[in-house]
Amino acid sequence: MARASGAAHPAAGARGESCVVTGGARGIGRGIAERMVARGYAVVLTDVDAAGAVRTAGEIGAVAGLGLDVRDPEAHRAAAVEAASYGVLTAWFNNAGVGDDGRLAELSEEAVRRLVEVNLLGTLWGMRAALAAFAESGRGGDVVNTASLAGLGPVPGYSVYAATKAAIVSASMSCDVESPRGVRVHALCPDGVQTAMLDGQTPGGLGNLLVLSGGRILGVDEVAEAAVALVGSRRVVRSLPPWRGGVIRASALAPSVTAKALGVFVARGRRALQRRAGSN
After folding, report:
1. What is the pLDDT of residue 70?
2. What CDD domains would the database entry show (predicted)?
3. With the CA atoms of 7, 124, 92 and 194 taken in that order, what torsion angle do they form, in degrees rounded to the nearest 10?
């Protein structure tokens, strides 16, 4: 795990509490880290892009930026130790992830393995490190996992990605129940978010068209705000926007109906893609 400290912020650690944010160099993770710094937490920001983590930490006032590959359990434990050196670790955001799109039959073995190891195993290792730190301090805390609406129902074109996010939702619910009093585990399930991950997906691919068919693409700030708002709450699973969560959960009850409506959603997504192309 590469390590470098970010510039200390005068308010950092004002609460005497610290937190860890994975995948924090940009996008949603950066937005979460900024908000936690503003709340007075000593924020340890991590990312597989070590230079980006250091740079972002300095820009937003996090106490440290660490290069961290979430597939490495020991790296998570080291991040927990680092955070505890600045204050009691009471919040952990498992935000890092990858978003390879495509049907299962189309994805390379490398892509399938990356999705499972980064999205699912990376989140599980982070949860274990956080829960162990909470137990050691005796203070409890919150784990917030960035999942996805794709984890709540059938999403053709994102079969493996959706499976990893569904597993994160399931693990979050189970761990929340099995955790001791004072420890809360949450899963945030946003719809499509305008990030580099979305930009990197196959334009016009099935998954991409289905994301665009949902209407407005969420912004990073509103998703980061929703993630931070879960800290201290008893809400375990939160969909964003809430109405989309209801729609996709309903589709999970009747996947054959969803399959029949697929053409309608694809057509809507294609029109949205054309509008986006025309506005650029």
Report:
1. 98
2. SDR_c
3. 70
Exposed/middle/buried for 279, CB within 10 Å: 0-12, 13-18, 19+? exposed
Share of the chain above pLDDT 90, in %: 66
Contacts (Cβ under 8 Å, ≥6 apart) of 137: 84, 88, 89, 90
C-beta of residue 12 within 8 angstroms of C-beta of residue 61: yes
Q: What is the DSSP track for 205-230? A: -HHHHHHHTTSSPBPHHHHHHHHHHT
* Within a domain: 8: yes
Kindly report which listed range (18-27, 143-152, 252-261) carries the lowest average pLDDT score: 252-261
Show the domain range for 240.
Answer: 3-208+215-254
Residue type, 187: A
In a domain, 18, yes or no: yes
Predicted model pTM? 0.84
Which CATH number does the domain housing residue 28 bear?
A: 3.40.50.720
**Would you please indicate which residues are annotated as catalytic (active-site) residues?**
161
* C-alpha to C-alpha distance for 208 and 231, rounded to whole angstroms: 31
| 76 in a structural domain | yes
CB 152, CB 189: distance < 8 Å = yes
CA-nearest of 176, 30, 17 to 95 is 30
The answer to the question of residue 266 being in a domain is: no
Tally of domains within the chain: 1
